[in-house]
Amino acid sequence: MKNILTLNSISPVINDIFDKSYNVSADCDKPVGIMLRSFKMHDYELDQNTVAVARAGAGVNNIPVEKYAEQGVVVFNTPGANANAVKELVLAGLLLGSRKIVDAIDWVKTLKGKGDEVGKLVEKGKSNFGGYEIKGKKLGVIGLGAIGALVANAGDKLGMSVIGYDPFLSVDAALRLSTHVKVVKSLDVLFEECDYITLHIPYIANQNKGFINAEALSKMKNGVVIINCARGELIDNGDMITAVNSGKVARYVCDFPADEIIGIENIVCIPHLGASTEEAEDNCAVMASKQLIDYIENGNIINSVNYPACSMPRTTDFRLVILHKNINNILAQITTVVGNEGINISNMSNKSRGDYAVTILDTDVEVSEQSIKHIQDVDGIIKVREIR
Does the annotation mark 272 as catalytic? Predict the structure, then answer.
């Protein structure tokens, strides 16, 4: 029985994914895999039996990704599984940024008890909550991955002129974009031209903290609306408050409330609802489960954030999965150990990304424990798993 530990409540759809050879529980010992959503793992003591951690969501700020890579623990996420849910909230954000809907609803609540006067009071007071239509306006989408591409295409269908920016735009992502979306190479062009700007980039602490700050805001149009359903840390909240108070930013719609921005006029704080739909939670749980199972049973790696994608069909009953540093001559040393035992390698895959690499070997017969130990002793080898 293989134990899977859940550190958060995970959608019950996973019960249809894991078969009877797995015990999925919030309370189990020596888990081979862990599933979570928002649980913070930086101070968590990982069991030595754990080979993989699967985050049912895209962001992995709550997981010590690099530390786990050094320990030979593969970390998975589920990019795109919650993309539609976030896209729909961004579309709501466009309307919340254009029309003072929240303020108007709050004002209507003050009319309770006014009896027959309510109708007249509504007609008299509604002029305080006028707004603008989004049709015909320019929408800037920063980051054109799974979510950003959906937002860009939806903006186009709503009659907006869409400008996208993504210095790491892949061919697949580009093909998903509407031909009407204009992709620019300069972020300043997007800042200068757009009436609405929405963020869809990952937060990396030592690279883009405060990505939207006073300098960036100064380049934007007066009265710009900014929507942030990506990460709160991407915004310098102090600079944003100044820009909102001055009117430089007409409205800031944020899915990541912080004490300093709550209650500020023209800042709309949403309680992190981006992926909070039943469909998104189900999609993330299913994707995370399947990736975890495929790695545990076959050593295949798909959507890992700390190791390269590496997978191949099983061709024999004996497989070695080797996680190692991406250094010269290590692959030759691995195959030499197996060859010295007189074992034929039926199939092999080797992939690298940055400092880390993965090698999968299918052998005709079982590799001896002694040879596995010899591989483990090679400089740069992090973990060797034998799968039968």
Answer: yes
